[in-house]
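Continuing from the previous page...

OK, I double-checked the sequence for 3-dehydroquinate dehydratase against my notes and this is the correct one:
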Amino acid sequence: MKIQIINGPNLNLLGVREKSIYGNSSFDVYLEELRKRYPDVEIEYYQSNIEGELINKLHEIGFSFDGVVMNAGAYTHTSVAIADAIAAINTPVIEVHISNVYKREEFRHHSMLAASCRGVIAGFGLDSYRLGLESFLIS
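Thanks. Re-ran it with the corrected sequence; updated structure tokens here:
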């Protein structure tokens, strides 16, 4: 099984930004833990702060991977283009968020992506990614 994890803007700063919301761990450390926990799953990782690059990555892997676990960051709430890219590909996408977006600012309560995704997981810290990955293992 091949799973692509895609992180959007500012998620390259995990472990150093807003630790009370996003925790103390970098994503690289967490990614190694995921890979050790699921040795039979090929887990690829991609991060970009640029909307078009996220779309290009979805197009690149969207017909050959078994699943995408995507945290589009703030683009979740603004990007029709990413939503359209998700709708255009065959690979199912799980939208994930580290924080519980419904406990945060009002603008974070709406996802432009959710309707194009298989499901949404929010509020479980970095384990939101694990839960997203596991959703592909059980379906």
